[in-house]
Structures are given as structure tokens and as C-alpha cells.
């Protein structure tokens, strides 16, 4: 017998949607995944999509829902704004925005913004992973890799600053639209982090990140001159981009020696290996667990505080 | 009265074709430009296209033609191979390949290749610009900016090594296919090299080239948070990529203090300004003149040596 659901937790990204039903301990009692991300949800509508998934999970009427991610972007369900850094993680929930048109209470969490000409930056969704990483007091550097990798500095529960590296998007762009596509083949696969081509490119980029844009062209030249296999070319592209990302993050945060890596699956393995090669100690937090925990904690504060007080 | 043409000089790139008729002093007596570059020339055929342009220019039967560029690539008219570096500039012409199917003598110049795992690289066309830059004895560093910018080390007439930065291609990719396109608008224009946004981005990238992939994302964040105008966003993208290119070239060639810049038009102005900001002295050579001179010198050696000896 499962405990009753007290909250629907929703991670609504650009391309994907994930819905969990959680009990009062935050444990999962139901789960759905879907490709109805923000960019395709406009037609049917966000409220209707959410209701469909909740109905399929047998969620009771009136069950409150907490949402993070691109559903809160301007082109999403409703704009959920940004909290400016420095921002206290414990304050994220109370800045949530009510979503219109839903048959139940739905709140969407805000993103984070870093304003000013020095390095403007934004995140939307990762702030909830960060909250769910349950960092202890003290100073932390957090890496959340992906299409747009986030590097976040946290001090005593306050996000003090962050930077976004376009690593995943650059990999996709270069592999599918640039001259490098001729060397990477139809379905580029960066392979395992132990691949010698990945490790060599990673070390090259860590040593000379300022040469990135010419190291990239060498992938094409290697294909032309030496028939470098496409899997090695893809591993090299991945190693160069991740190496440059880590070198940039180290340069922006010279005090960083330990990194809390919030990632899952193959991405976690690849970045853990790369951070190790870069001489950083890694504290791994599962990204799927983190976002669910972050959503639960925010939902608990917003909807369940009466019950748990 | 113009002097009679003794040579047809052809710069046949990926996207464009340029044909000059030159007299025995190498002066221009006729010129044609066309969009029939290597990538679109396959249908009608290279020989037929060349004959059309030569007929339109009134070139005499049997006038020899010298060709450089992508017409010598594997997917071009005929593969003209590569000379391996170190390569003596004076030796380029004698390595030319005869093009088949032409109604006149046609020779295609080879590209240059840098083999080995350290930094494989290739060029095709720029070697002829380099020959036409007529460098004096001694050591030179040459920058040939473009879609794929070439940085070449030359010592006493010998190309000793080179690197290619994907600057122009990255600008196009990021401006048209990445998330940055939302901030750059439909027709991105990097503006003048005096634009404050270009200068700031250039200085930032020269100071911290290792942060390139996160500095890029800040363009998008600046658009979201501060409604940065699209022309400033485009200038920033250009400044970041050119700054990173120059920083990488400096790191790979620490002895470089003077740069021979082979470029024309707006590209020449932009790179001259950027190289100056980077503390490098610039010796400007017009790229159009250089390729024509390089072709003439090679054609003279191959076809006209009897006459001029």
C-alpha cells in the first residue's frame, strides 16, 4: 500500500515534462514523463496537459502542483520572473507565481537573474535542482552540466553568483551544422569518458583553453588528413568543449577546489571524470533526485505548511 | 589600349569564383566575379564554367589558366593535393595539378597540410594569398581572417606552421542557429570596429579567452534582462570571437609582435583594430591584390618562364 499523494511536482523544461506525485515524506507515489516541453505546449495549453498527466496518475481533485523550469518563461504558461542574486535559496518558494486557468492550485517557481554589465546571466529550473541539492552551510561551487551548463557559487545558503557555459548547445551546433559534421558522422556519440581521444582533448583544452576555436578546426583537418574515425572526432569535440568550460569556470572561481556536481547518468560520469582530470574533487548529487527534492521542499512551504506545522 | 592577356588567374572558392585576365606585367586587363563556387559548380562542370567566363572576357584560345582554392579539393574539379609544411613558398607552383577536360592548359595549385596529432591543419587558397603577400626574408606571422581564419608562421620564405580558427563560421552558426539568434535579430551586423560593444567584448576575450563559452551566453542573458539592442549583441559576438582568436594565436606564437594582415574591406578594418587593441603592430596587405599576385607569380613560373627567361 502506497501513502496518499499530497503534492504534484512538475519539472517543465524546454523539450520535456516530468510529473511526480509525492507523499507527505516526499517519496514518489507516481511518475510520468513526456515530450510536451514548453516549446510544444502552446497548442493544447499548459493547464490541459498537466491535467491529462495528473488524471492518468489518478491524482485527487484539488491536489496542489508546484512547477519549475521554462513553463515560467515569458513564452511559457505564465512568466514567473527572476529573483536577483545574491538570493537566499530558502526564499525561492515564496516568490512563486500562481498559474492561471488551472483546476487546482498551481505555483511556478521563479528563475534566477544576475544583472549588470560584468556578466549578465539567467537560469530557470536549475535553481530548484540547487535547492534540492541540500547544501550544508559554508561555501560551495556547484556544476550543473547540460545544454547550458550552470556553475553556481553558494555561500551559507545564498546564491552569490553564477555563469552559464553553452557547452551542450555548442556540441550540437558544431556536430550538426558546421564543417565538423563531415568528420563526426550522422549520429555523433561522444563515447565513454575513458576514451583516449576524449581525455587528450580534455587535457589540451584545460592546458590551452584560449585555443578552443582553432582546436575545433583541427578535428576537421584530422578527418581530412588522417581519416580520424568519427567516434574519435566526436569524443574530441566533447573533450575540447568540456575542458574549455571547466577552465573558464576555474578562472572565474580561483578558490574552487571541490565541486558539487548535480548530474545524472552518462553526463554525471563524463563530468565527474573531467573534473577529476582538472584536479577538482567531486561531490556527486543525482540531478533527478535534486529537482524532485527541490520541488517538494518548495511545495511543502507553499501548500503543506499548515499540515506539517 | 590595353596590353594583351598572357594568363587567366582564377580564385575558385567554396562559394565564389573570381577570374582575372592578366598581362605580362601581371596587371588586370579583364575581370569577372560569380557565385559559381566549388559547391555549386558540379552540375555545369568546372571546365564549362571557366570557358564561359573566359569567352565573356574575350580571352584568346589557348590562354593558360592558373587556379587556386577549393576547385582543388577532393569534391572539386580535380584533387590538387597538399604540400606538407614546412613548405617553401617558391615551390608551390611546381606542385600544381593539371585539370582534365579543359580546352586550354589549366593548372590547379596545391593546398598546404600540417600533419601529426599535435595540431593537424589544412588550407586551400590562402597559400596563394600568402605567396602574393611577397614577404621579405626573415620571420613573419601572417593573419588571413575569414570563415576559417588562418594564422601562418613564415621564416625565410618557408611556411613553418599554421593554425585555423573557425571565427567566421562560429559567428554565422551562433547568430543563425543558436539561442543567441533571439538576441541578434534577423540580419546580424557586427557594425564598426569602433563600436563600444565590440571593443568591450574584444578586451574581455583578450583578457579571459578561457571564458568564451560562458561569455557567449551572457549575450542572451543581456538581451533578456536588459533588452540589449541587437546591434550591440552582434558587435559583442564578433568581439568575443575575434578576441578569442587573437588570444589563441598569441598563445601559440609568443614571439609574435608584428602581424602581416592579409584582408580587404570591412574585414581588414575590423582585424586591424582588434590586433591593435591586442598590442600587435599591423602590416596590412590587400587580400584581393595578394591572391592575384600569387596566381600571377605561379602562372608565370608554370606557363611563361620561356617567354620571360
TrEMBL record, chains A, B:
**Can you tell which superkingdom this protein's organism belongs to?**
Bacteria
> What InterPro entries does the database record attribute to this sequence?
ATPase_NBD, DGOK, DGOK_C, DGOK_N
User: What CDD domains does the entry give?
Assistant: ASKHA_NBD_KDGal-kinase
- Write out the entry's keywords from A to Z: Kinase, Transferase
Q: Which GO terms describe its molecular function?
A: 2-dehydro-3-deoxygalactonokinase activity
Pfam families in UniProt: DGOK (PF05035)
Give the stretches traversing the membrane.
Answer: none
> Tell me, which GO biological process terms does this entry list?
D-galactonate catabolic process
Q: What is this protein called?
A: 2-dehydro-3-deoxygalactonokinase
Lineage, opening ranks:
Bacteria, Pseudomonadati, Pseudomonadota, Alphaproteobacteria, Hyphomicrobiales
